[in-house]
Structures are given as C-alpha cells and as structure tokens.
Amino acid sequence: MTTFFISRHPGAIEWIKKQGVRIDRWESHLSLSDVMAGDVVVGTLPIPMVHELNRKGATYLHLSVEVVVVN
User: Fold this and answer.
1) N-term to C-term CA, the chain
2) Which of 6, 18, 52, 63 is in the most buried spot, having the most CB atoms within 10 Å?
3) Tens place of pLDDT for every residue, the chain, 71 residues?
C-alpha cells in the first residue's frame, strides 16, 4: 500500500507534515496509472478522478481546509 499526498500548495504540505501522517509519495499532480488497489490518496481532486480511484480500489481522503477571516 502506498500513501500519496497530492498538492502543489506549500501550506498544505507543511500542515500534513505536522500531522504525523506517513506519506510515501509527494506529488503536485496525480497520474492514475501510478495508483493500485489498496493505495491511499490524500488531496483535493476533481470528482471524475475520485471516481476512477474508487473503481481501482484505492481510498481517497479529501483535504478540506477551513478558512477563517479575522477582521
């Protein structure tokens, strides 16, 4: 099983590194051909790509960030 983190945003990469999550591959873009059944993909991907991950038997974890505006 491989855990992918897909993001090109430095803040997201910095945040996930502080969470203690084991990431095997750090990528700015995902190639579906690299993903196999049992793999885990973390990121913010378009729904059609998530659908393909599910069809392949991979797990997708959506990275969602709450933005708080302070005035």
Assistant:
1) 44
2) 6
3) 999 999 999 999 999 999 999 999 999 999 999 999 999 999 999 999 999 999 999 999 999 888 889 98
DSSP codes of every residue in 7-37: ---HHHHHHHHTTT---SEEESS--GGG--T
Neighbours of 48 (CB within 10 A): 8
State the Rg of the chain over Cα: 13
CB 30 within 8 A of CB 3: no
Amino acid identity at 61: L
Strand partners, 4: 25, 41
Residue 1, token pair as written in the block: 């099983």
H/E run at residue 31: none
Q: What is the pTM of this model?
A: 0.88
User: Which DSSP letter does residue 40 get?
Assistant: E
